[in-house]
Amino acid sequence: MTVLIAALVACVLSALTFLPADALPANLGPFLNGGVILLTLFIAWRALAMTRSRQEPAAPAMQPAPAPRPEAPKPVKPEPTQTGEALILLSLLQEKGRFLDYVMEDITAFSDAQVAAASRVVHQGCSAVIKECLALSPTHEGAEGDRITIDKSTDPNRYRLLGKIQQEPPYKGVVVHRGWKTSKLGLPRFTRPVDPTGPNVITPMEVEVK
């Protein structure tokens, strides 16, 4: 619109320049010529600006931000299956050595001789169960009191470090307990279901029918 008005004004001024000199006020001719030149320059500048704006690529339209994707539900970690090996082992220890009867009894009311006599029975029965189900041997083949060095490459499951422990191995110390290991695990198959929240019978009650 501005360019159109400027072009019309320039045409009017140009037409005035063709009128006779006595028809125009004195000294108006130079102003008319100057106005025509200025308007011509303005029209040329606007035309150049419009040409450049057409050549420039249009700015890409703003794309709406993608909607956040709903988080996938975290997988529920299944609870470990209760297989019942501990129950069957306790059942065998109770059956052969009265282990639970012994450890659950309040022995403060008994004399040392009575406790020793009961311990002998428990020891014999529990020892038979352990030897039947496991093949036990000391973790350390030497004797208690041996001085040993534990290197970085040593299996950490073979040792339980006590006392003041430095940052990095090797560790030097004295064997306080030799530990135990087994090369056999022969527990009977546990066929009864295990209920983690309910009562699980280890040894059934004994009832004498009369």
Structural overview:
With 210 residues, the protein is mainly alpha-helical. The protein has helices at residues 2-17, 29-55, 85-97, 99-104, 112-133; strands at 134-138, 147-150, 171-174, 180-185. A two-stranded antiparallel ribbon has the order 1-4. A two-stranded antiparallel ribbon has the order 2-3. Helix 1 runs antiparallel to helix 2 and helix 3 (85-97) packs across helix 5 (112-133). The chain starts with a helix and ends in a 25-residue tail after the last strand. The mean pLDDT is 78.
* Major sheet details: 2 strands, antiparallel
Structural class from helices and strands?
Answer: mainly alpha
Compute the number of helices. 5
| Order of strands across the main sheet | 1-4
Kindly state the percentage of residues in helix.
Answer: 40-55%
Approximate shape:
elongated
Task: Give a brief outline of the structure.
With 210 residues, this protein is mainly alpha-helical.
Task: Name the features.
two-stranded antiparallel ribbon; single chain; 40% helix; 210 residues; 5 helices; mainly alpha; 9% strand
Secondary structure elements and their pairing?
Layout lengths: L1 H16 L11 H27 L29 H13 L1 H6 L7 H22 E5 L8 E4 L20 E4 L5 E6 L25
Antiparallel strand pairs: 1-4, 2-3
